[in-house]
Design a protein that fits this description.
An eight-stranded antiparallel barrel has the order 1-2-8-6-7-4-3-9. It is built from ten helices and nine strands.
């Protein structure tokens, strides 16, 4: 039985926020941009598997129950904990939660000296001068910083940034620039071949407009398929590669088209389908008809060529580029 706590490098009693933080840290470490080694993809798959179980309270409870009867159970964990020297155990626990262990006072006399120094009054004039200098420096620096990215005409600016830097890079969804009376075809290029999809501007104009904007801005370039479920879907478009990233905005639902084999749709968080917005960038392609998803997610396109490529996509495969043809 796999030790998912060991995979995420957390204690078996870790709070949920600790697990979330550990997952984000490991996802950054083993992201293809930061770790191109051949073993990184396998490691990331194990991390995703562990996170999928431990982030869900029901799954975690069931896993903990099964774990108690295995060689990795709580009792043996507790025995190992008791065998540690008290000082070592405290240090390990503090380190595990990102805190430094407490340091004992080595010299009471020196401590007293430090406390005495700390009580000396600081010249208020000096404080005022420092604050003024900081304000002036920030004002001068602001004149040289580039303006934050805002959606408009696509410029390819996203492609110039590392994948993780694209997360939350926009302030709002892009302005409507497509013509719903025209046709749009997207080509998703991968090392295993190209996936060609016809987009549905009349059924889902905001979703198509958004996808066209991001593609033309290079947002999808070099992102990965971070979720692959055999016989179900392949999912990509997350700049963090964890399933938690996005461009900085969401899209209102436009639920109409059905989930046929090769449907191109937008992911979303849980909630009522008609009111919960779609993700700004995370899209998925179905590997088979999925009528159970109909009425729940926005389908904004259909794969017309490259279904064999879709079937070959594996976890961690890279989206080399997404190009748009307007007719």
């Amino acid at each position: 039985m796999k030790d998912y706590y060991r995979v995420l490098q957390v204690d078996s009693l870790a709070e949920q926020e600790v697990i979330e933080a550990a997952y984000r840290r490991l996802a950054r470490k083993y992201h293809p941009d930061n770790n191109p080694s051949s073993g990184a993809t396998q490691q990331m798959q194990e991390i995703n598997e562990a996170y999928d179980v431990l982030r869900d309270r029901v799954k975690r409870a069931q896993y903990d129950k099964e774990r108690t009867t295995s060689r990795l159970g709580f009792e043996k964990d507790g025995q190992r904990e008791k065998q540690r020297p008290a000082r070592e155990t405290e240090t390990a626990r503090h380190t595990e939660y990102g805190k430094q262990p407490r340091k004992e006072k080595k010299d009471q006399h020196r401590t007293g000296e430090h406390e005495h120094v700390a009580t000396n009054k600081i010249n208020p004039v000096l404080i005022g001068a420092i604050i003024l200098l900081v304000i002036l420096a920030l004002f001068a620096l602001s004149n040289f910083l580039p303006a934050p990215a805002s959606p408009g005409a696509s410029s390819g600016g996203a492609a110039k940034l590392a994948s993780q830097q694209r997360s939350e890079m926009y302030k709002a969804a892009p302005a409507m620039t497509i013509d719903v009376n025209k046709s749009y075809v997207a080509t998703i290029k991968t090392a295993k071949g190209s996936i060609v999809a016809e987009l549905y501007p009349k059924d889902a104009p905001q979703h198509v407009n958004n996808f066209v904007f991001l593609a033309r801005d290079g947002f999808f370039n070099n992102l990965t398929f971070h979720r692959v479920v055999a016989g179900f879907v392949i999912q990509g478009g997350d700049p963090l590669g964890t399933g938690t990233g996005g461009p900085g905005y969401n899209i209102p639902p436009e639920i109409k088209a059905k989930h046929t084999n090769g449907a191109l749709a937008m992911a979303r968080q849980g909630g009522p389908a008609q009111t919960t917005p779609s993700s700004g960038s995370q899209f998925y392609i179905t590997l088979a008809p999925q009528p159970g998803l109909d009425g729940q997610y926005t389908v904004f396109g259909q794969v017309t060529s490259g279904l064999d490529v879709v079937a070959k996509i594996a976890l961690g495969d890279v989206i080399q580029s997404v190009t748009i043809e307007e007719k």
